[in-house]
Amino acid sequence: MTDVRTDLSAHLSATGVEGDLAELLLKIAASCVDIRKVVSGGALAGALGASGNVNVQDEEQKKLDVISNDILTDNLLALPLVAGVASEEMDNCQPAKHDGGKFLVLFDPLDGSSNIDINAPVGTIFSVLAAPSGEITDAAFLQDGRKQLAAGYVLYGGQTMLVLTTGSGVAGFTLSLDGQWLLTHADIKISPDTKEFAINMSNQRHWAEGVQTYVAGCLQGAEGGRGKNFNMRWVAAMVADVHRIMMRGGVFLYPWDKREPNKPGKLRLMYEGNPMSFLVEQAGGKSTTDGRNAILDVTPTQLHQRVPVILGSANEIEEIAACCGV
Ligand code: AFP
Hints:
The chain has helices at residues 8-14, 19-41, 63-77, 138-141, 209-220, 238-248, 269-282, 314-324, and strands at 50-54, 60-62, 82-87, 94-95, 103-111, 122-130, 150-156, 160-165, 170-175, 181-185, 196-199, 231-232, 251-254, 267-268, 286-288, 306-307, 309-312. By secondary structure, it is of the alpha+beta class. It has an eight-stranded mixed β-sheet, sandwiched between helices. The N and C termini lie far apart (55 Å). Bound molecules: 1,6-di-O-phosphono-alpha-D-fructofuranose.
């Protein structure tokens, strides 16, 4: 039987995304198919284990971090439309060798890399900006999140899914066995209410009081002031945790904590915070630093800047804001 579903290319053109931006998004999606192949190969593809290097975040790079980074960097810089790329895995941006590129692309090539060796979900996150005129340096990438032209993620899970926004809603595509991105989730909306929260509980002693209060309320369940029982999930790959929230609601917190005052959070503004916030807001959710202030309004000052993240179902984010007194 012929599958009559819309593919990514047809969806982009039906939603008015044509020409150069469509070409770029198709190239990003194709690069993620290449990454999927290496992820699926695992030990057979020589993709497991450490690379022996440490990245600019002082984190041990996995082989798959490096392989995924190379795939995206090589594929995108070969495209005349791309003026430069920046990645969580590279110290500085890489400008293209050609002139005339009109887009900058930022990415976390393999999010959740601690999941690689245990065959648990991982993902790729990307953000597209307009290239300013002139030389492409790190400063060219430091644009407000609201200036993103497109953002998305690919989840390498039981199914491989691309979830994308170009600023008019969020659409989800599933990779078919014959390598096509087919529209399976048109107009994704995050339910405003939830009974599910995601946070790394092992950090509890480091959290600020407001987050302590919020989580304590969830744990008290029906016997506490919230009057309902909560469930907790933590995949340790933001892509997978955000995807669950896209599908059935929930909140995700990687809040400020007092361990390292110079690092206001663990997650990176340019590769995780901004693209996920664009997607979450476009799906009707909220994405904030503290329950109130939008991540998309944070002014970037450094390529590898960190940011506290509290995002998800809109009404539940209001509950968190109330607990945090903001
Ligand atoms: P890695 O890609 O370095 O594994 O980090 C993943 C991540 O940035 C994000 O995807 C997770 O939500 C978060 O870190 C998990 O952090 P913990 O290991 O501290 O729970």
